[in-house]
Amino acid sequence: MAVIPSDIAQPFIRRETSVGPVTSARHRRNAMIYAAMCILGLLPTILGMSPELAAAGLGLWIPGGGFLAVGGWAILLFPVTIALFAVAVFAWFGAGMVLAPVIVWLGAALLAGKMVGDQTWFLAPYLVAATVIGIGIYAFQRSHARKNAELAKLESRKRGLATAISEAIEVAAPVPTLAERELTPDDLAALRYGLDRALQPVGQLNGYDRVDQFQTSALRYQINHLGYGLGMAQCMYTPSFHGYLSQAQRNLIELYLDKRIWGYWLWESAWGHLNVTDPDPAAKDNIMLTGWLGIQLCMYMSNTGDRRYAEPGSLPFRRNGHRVFNHDAHTIAQSVMKNFLDSEFCLYPCEPNWVYPICNHYGMTSLAIYDRVFGGKFVPSVLDRWLKNLDTEFTDYSGSIIGLRSSITGIRFPFPAGDAGFAGFENCFAPDRAQRMWATARQDLKFIIKADQTGAQRMALPGKGFDFGNYKSGFAGAYAMLMDTAREFGDYEIADAAQRALDQDCGRADDGGVLRYSKGSNLHNAMAMRARIHRRDDFRRTIAEGPPEASLRGPLLTDAKYPEVLVARAFSNGDDLDLVLYPGAQPGPQQIKVERLKPGANYAMRNGSDHAFTADHDGAASLSVELQGRTPIHIVPAS
Amino acid sequence: MPCCAFAAFIISQIVLGFGAIKRFLLRSDDSLDEAPNNPATEWRLIGGAPALTVAPVRRFGMRTLALAASIEILLAVGAVYGYHVHSHEHRLAGIGNLTICARTR
């Protein structure tokens, strides 16, 4: 990839604001609504209207403010309401329950109006006003301090950006050649973590974390990441092996259709969109489903050439015996595109009203792979507007993408985000921007890389960390994500430091031939699996290029027993089949099946010595192979 | 006193609610502790321990539920009693006002 550092740096330096026109309009609307509430709330007090109206009115200034007007013990209800309001905002954030804060705020005002006696407490208006002003001053100061800190960071970044980009390009390892593509025994052990989960009967959820289905620990994300890891492995290492690897990916997709996985949307649609009659999971919002699943579907179809999920109704989201939301890869992609076009922000919400830029990156990536697989033009028709809005509405003063913004209020909420996490996705559809993001991110990462007891470099994050896959402490997610992104950009020094930290701190276990991190969630084990097999540009190539064309038409390994036969490499030049197999259990003979040979043609299987065989009239052949450690097998047409 | 009981009832509901959110949603019992081993990662398709195949959904026994239910019932009874006494006091106060007004006239 030819990248000129100054070209990449320039747009970043020119950016001047983080509050774009749509966000500004939302802020103005908030201010007008709040001003109207304050005026309306103050009128009964000024005009000497009834105590009921005066108390309810003060309740419009701040949640629970009316209880101060009630006086006496009811004053205690003021902090209680504030706490309840915080819970309601959490419910809104966590599960899109948009009505919760409104109900608490207005409900508390009405309740105060009902509870008040013959007169209001005379100090109440002053206390309410003082509280509101105090909160306003605090919020302004905090926002001002944050803005100053971000601007200072921007200045610092501007000074070192060109150097940082040059450095990132310089240290990047080259893209591996086809000949270098082979999974190591460790890689295979890591992959078995995902295969074990994906190959269990569809509907079973052994080995998954089950906490909640709304936020980051939800099963859907675990399924998606397992699918991405297996899909990338197939594309980059074993495109000529289908068998259990394709079956595993299909199982994950079928599992996703289980109502336990996507049923959260029935709730979110009800309390977020007030839609109980037609809660289609791939209609309005919900990019956390459409964007994420879209990648998984297209990855499978791109790798295998199997177009079953493009058939109408191939993805039935069954609500009950009477109602099914029938979808397919096309309707999923169309949902993402339509929402991009309909949204004023261009980026659009996951949960009703909450726009997560990271999920929108999944969405744009899903369109990128959809366009390639089906010859669409979605990305070119929307990307410019999408990136412009990302820059103006979802980027802070330091140039980093923010974690989360409310689409209704335009308010930015604190949610962890990092440039590194976005860079890997942008590498699929905006590689120059991605390079810039990675360059700035890796500058920050340098400060957390230290020598371990043996003198080797490792990452060392402060604190106890947080695992988004099960809401416990731990760094598995952070290290796995950084390792994954560093590998995408060919920065193996940083990736190795992250892997060392993962191995040392996150409970690496290798028992039973499966590599796992016992202190991490399933979600982050899935990410670690992908990170381990990741090499330079693998994700971008899986999305933007797909497997070598010859692998899509040449001979295929279609059957091998799991876990007895592990496939470390499977490529075809169109005529041959180049395999590297390992015994997953005991060394010895194993049966494999090869298909897409020329019907009736003679072939030679080279494995130390030559074994001749003839393909049947369907172009298939069952072969016995002796697996002893690393076993290279080359099947070629007999000359 | 009844008013304080009512306030305590309200606050206790909030505290219990937070506790429930912490335990059921966030599992924050463990969130600040040293990361324990995750049983989900120990499951294997072949040769995995069967006992680990079912991920725990709830970790509350009947005893905990019974205790929580008892506390809830006690609080609810206290609240009803508090409300009853409170409204009774209001009625007496109203009668007192009427009496005073009548005498003034």
Overview of this protein structure:
The complex is a heterodimer of chains A (639) and B (105). Chain A has 22 helices and 16 strands. Chain A is α+β, with helices and mostly antiparallel strands and 639 residues long. Among the domains of chain A are: 21-143, no CATH class; 549-637, Sandwich (Immunoglobulin-like), CATH 2.60.40. In chain A, strands 10-11-16-13-14 form a five-stranded antiparallel sheet, with helices on one face. Chain A has a three-stranded antiparallel sheet with strand order 9-12-15, with no helix packed on it. In chain A, helix 9 (219-236) runs parallel beside helix 13 (287-304). Chain A is elongated and about 105 Å long. The model of chain A has no long low-confidence stretch (mean pLDDT 93). In chain B, helix 1 packs antiparallel against helix 3 (62-104). Chain B has one domain. Chain B has helices at 2-26, 39-42, 62-104. Chain B has 105 residues and is an all-alpha fold. Chain B has three helices and no strands.
The Rg value of chain A, from CA coordinates, equals 28 Å
**How many runs of DSSP E, i.e. beta strands of chain A?**
16
The helical percent of chain B reads 55-70%
Identify low-pLDDT runs of chain B. 1-7, 50-58, 94-105
Most strands sheet of chain B: none
Beta-strand percentage range of chain B: under 5%
Q: Determine the mean pLDDT of chain A.
A: 93
Total of domains of chain B:
1
For the secondary structure, the number of strands of chain B is 0
